[in-house]
Amino acid sequence: xxxxxxxxxxxxxxxxxxxxxxxxxxxxxxxxxxxxxxxxxxxxxxxxxxxxxxxxxxxxxxxxxxxxxxxxxxxxxxxxxxxxxxxxxxxxxxxxxxxxxxxxxxxxxxxxxxxxxxxxxxxxxxxxxxx
Length: 131
What we know:
By secondary structure, the protein is mainly beta. It has helices spanning 14-19, 21-25, and strands spanning 37-42, 47-53, 61-67, 76-82, 88-91, 99-105, 114-117, 122-126. The chain is globular. The protein starts with 13 loop residues before the first helix and ends in a 5-residue tail after the last strand.
C-alpha cells in the first residue's frame, strides 16, 4: 500500500529542508558558556509566562513557536513581551490535545526545541530543563 501511495511521513522537499539545517543552527544560542534557560508556564486559558535564566541582554520580546508534528512547518507564533518584573507574557488560542513541538527564540538566539505530550502547563528549555 505505501509503495503505491504517499504515506505523508517523508517531506516532499526533504533535500531543501536538510539544506536549511545550518541556517537554523545559526540561530541557536551562540555561546555555550552562556547557559540560557527558560521556564515556560501555560495557564488553562492560554496565558503564557516565561522566566529566563542566564540572559545578559534582555530583549523586549521573545517568540514562542508551537506546532503539532504533523503541522510542524506551520507553527503558531506567540509574541511574548517583557514586563517590568522581567517576566515575558503573551497568550495563544485554545490548546488542542496531542503532542507539541515547542521552540523559544529571540533575534540573536534560539533555545533547543523540545516536544511535550498532552496539555501544555510547564515546559523547561535549555539549562532550565536540567533543574
